[in-house]
């Protein structure tokens, strides 16, 4: 088991890539603290993990709330006694032409996609320092590497996640805290499936990649697992695309 004895907090774990990561981490031996704004969905994920023999805890969590982050980490300390891994996965996508985006659109996207990462990282680092180190994996996007039409606020926020990752990696590497980012491409999730697998649009998405299939949430989770594990003990500050070759073009 690649995460045996590790304690991991995973945000946005109620569905999609967060759910896949939570299930995989538990399978690999981690105690998973799965958080999501929707408590019902994340409780279902945790129940499935427990039925499969894993250890997990579900918490309702608004990643834009400093108080919620404090509560999450208080629970981690009380229940688990340490923190080894943080996966900042929670995020939103706003598909709206750049000239139509309002200040409210911009602010909401930034609050969730980058402020949530900043807060989680701020609270994680002292716990990881006390534990002799740790691993933070931030979920960005290929839009942070290539740009993406019709999603200015989203692209900018995911670019900020990429830059914050590198800054934190440099600042806390000497504390044995590794910080890396994963950049998913066209990944089929419950949120994206109605578009990506629609007969009228699927070929468009397939044309963007060089592999013959669209990405799956489990494939992103596998990349996150590698960076979170001790197998990546000398890797920090990198950006790892899981994109079927989009960024190779």
Automatic annotation (TrEMBL):
Give the source's domain of life in one word. Bacteria
Residue ranges of every copy of the Ketoreductase domain listed in the record: 6-180
| Record carries keyword Iron | no
UniProt keyword terms in alphabetical order: NAD, Oxidoreductase
Q: Pfam families in the record, alphabetically?
A: adh_short_C2 (PF13561)
Instruction: Please verify whether the record's keywords include Oxidoreductase.
Output: yes
Q: Which SMART domains match?
A: PKS_KR
Q: Which family does it belong to?
A: Belongs to the short-chain dehydrogenases/reductases (SDR) family.
Please give the name of this protein. Answer: SDR family oxidoreductase
């Amino acid at each position: 088991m690649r995460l045996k004895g590790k304690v991991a907090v995973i945000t946005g774990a109620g569905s999609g890539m967060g759910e896949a990561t939570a299930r995989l981490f538990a399978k690999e031996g981690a105690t998973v603290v799965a958080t999501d704004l929707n408590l019902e969905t994340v409780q279902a994920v945790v129940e499935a993990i427990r039925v499969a023999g894993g250890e997990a805890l579900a918490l309702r969590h608004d990643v834009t709330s400093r108080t919620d982050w404090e509560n999450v980490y208080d629970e981690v300390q009380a229940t688990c006694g340490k923190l080894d891994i943080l996966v900042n996965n929670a995020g939103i996508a706003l598909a709206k032409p750049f000239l139509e985006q309002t200040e409210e659109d911009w602010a909401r996207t930034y609050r969730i996609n980058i402020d949530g990462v900043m807060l989680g990282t701020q609270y994680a680092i002292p716990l990881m320092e006390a534990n002799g180190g740790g691993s933070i994996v931030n979920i960005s996007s290929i839009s942070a590497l290539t740009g993406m039409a019709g999603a200015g606020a989203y692209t900018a926020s995911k670019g900020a996640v990429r830059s914050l990752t590198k800054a934190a990696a440099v600042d806390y590497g000497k504390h044995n805290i590794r910080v890396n980012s994963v950049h998913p491409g066209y990944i089929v999730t419950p949120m994206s499936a109605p578009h990506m697998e629609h007969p009228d649009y699927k070929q468009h998405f397939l044309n963007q990649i060089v592999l013959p299939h669209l990405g799956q949430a489990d494939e992103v989770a596998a990349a996150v697992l590698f960076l979170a594990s001790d197998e990546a003990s000398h890797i920090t500050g990198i950006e790892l695309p899981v994109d079927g070759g989009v960024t190779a073009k």
